[in-house]
UniProtKB/TrEMBL annotation:
One of its GO terms (molecular function) is thiosulfate-cyanide sulfurtransferase activity. Residues 4-223 form the THIF-type NAD/FAD binding fold domain. SUPFAM superfamilies: Activating enzymes of the ubiquitin-like proteins (SSF69572). Gene3D superfamilies: NAD(P)-binding Rossmann-like Domain. It holds the Pfam family ThiF. InterPro entries: ThiF/MoeB/HesA, ThiF_NAD_FAD-bd, Ubiquitin-activating_enz. GO terms for cellular component: cytoplasm. It comes from Haematobacter genomosp. 1. This is Thiamine biosynthesis protein ThiF.
Length: 325
């Protein structure tokens, strides 16, 4: 127990909490900048198993903030490189790399047997897919996001309101690391908060961070936060896998032609602005399936369509593997 002596000595932690960590399994979605402190702190603390899911390979532009990786890792799958690094940190932690994109088709299998889910992918679609499955499974979801010099981490589901309850609508603009940039230390700060939230849950420490968001402004050097335990659940369009689209669906591909081949031969190529009173609408009994690259345009189109048509609407994110913060 020498490895964990300093954290066992923390008041409110102790040997019992350490034993809980050793039996715990965490799913970490994304192996980028947020996952770097998350994975190192969870493995260092003695979490028994870490399932790491990421489809991407290490690039040189990752290295300023994705501190698990070294120059020699460039070109290698992130999940595998992260697992190797953790093997050198703590042999008692089993690191299970999954080189794949999380989507509605595999999310059930990926969350099976885990005690907590950490959303480190900073993907709009993945966050809502994870929130939906965690809400139904009763699993806590520790989700975080960073853009530029600002970010937040929060604990949803598992007895707390879901991400949909707190963020039922899209902001006017969703940023990205590629467009808005990101500073490495800000990612490290938010990722460390995310790791602490997960360890508090897994160790059974009180008070639990369920239903809380912690924000960080790196430019002003200021933390903030609030509780959302009173937020009410709201219904919204769910994400499905592209393979689940049927010929009977009213399918719309919202991407431009240069973004890829149309999702299905019978699909319409439209934009969100085309959903107006005299525009194309599904027939009675049809399901509307709205597709785009990341899910953002599909969400906007769903809001417009729902104001005109009362039927079922689902979303498809067609391969949004954008860079993680």
């Amino acid at each position: 127990m020498n490895r964990y002596a300093r954290q066992i000595a923390v008041p409110g932690f102790g040997a019992t909490a350490q034993e809980r960590l050793g039996r715990a399994t965490a799913l970490v979605v994304g192996a980028g900048g947020l996952a770097a402190p998350v994975l190192q702190y969870l493995a260092g603390a003695g979490v028994g198993r870490l399932r790491i899911v990421d489809p991407d390979r290490v690039e040189e532009s990752n290295l300023h903030r994705q501190t698990l990786f070294r120059h020699a890792d460039i070109g290698h799958p992130k999940a595998e490189a992260a697992a190797r690094a953790l093997g050198n940190l703590n042999l008692e932690t089993v690191a299970e790399p999954v080189v794949a994109a999380l989507d509605p088709g595999n999310v059930d299998a990926l969350v099976s047997g885990v005690d907590v889910v950490l959303d480190c992918a900073d993907s709009f679609a993945i966050s809502y897919i994870l929130s939906d499955i965690c809400l139904s499974a009763g699993l806590p979801l520790v989700s975080a996001s960073v853009i530029g010099t600002e970010g937040y981490a929060g604990v949803f589901c598992g007895g707390a309101p879901s991400l949909r309850a707190v963020f039922p609508e899209l902001p006017p603009r969703l940023g990205s690391c590629a467009e808005d940039g990101v500073l490495g230390p800000v990612v490290g700060v938010v990722g460390a908060v995310q790791a602490q939230m997960a360890l508090t849950l897994l160790a059974g420490m009180e008070p639990a961070p369920l239903g809380r968001i912690v924000s960080y402004d790196g430019r002003a050097q200021r933390f903030g936060g609030f509780s959302f335990l009173g937020a009410e659940e709201v219904a919204g369009p769910v994400f499905i896998h592209a393979d689940d689209i049927s010929a009977n669906d009213f399918t719309v591909d919202l991407r431009a032609e240069h973004e890829g081949r149309i999702v299905r031969p019978e699909a319409l190529r439209l934009t969100a602005a085309d959903f107006v009173a005299d525009g194309p609408l599904p027939q009675a009994g049809q399901r509307a399936v709205l597709c785009c690259r990341s899910g953002q345009r599909a969400w906007v189109a769903a809001e417009r369509l729902a104001a005109l048509w009362p039927g079922e609407i689902v979303l498809v994110a067609l391969g949004d593997h954008r860079e993680q913060p």
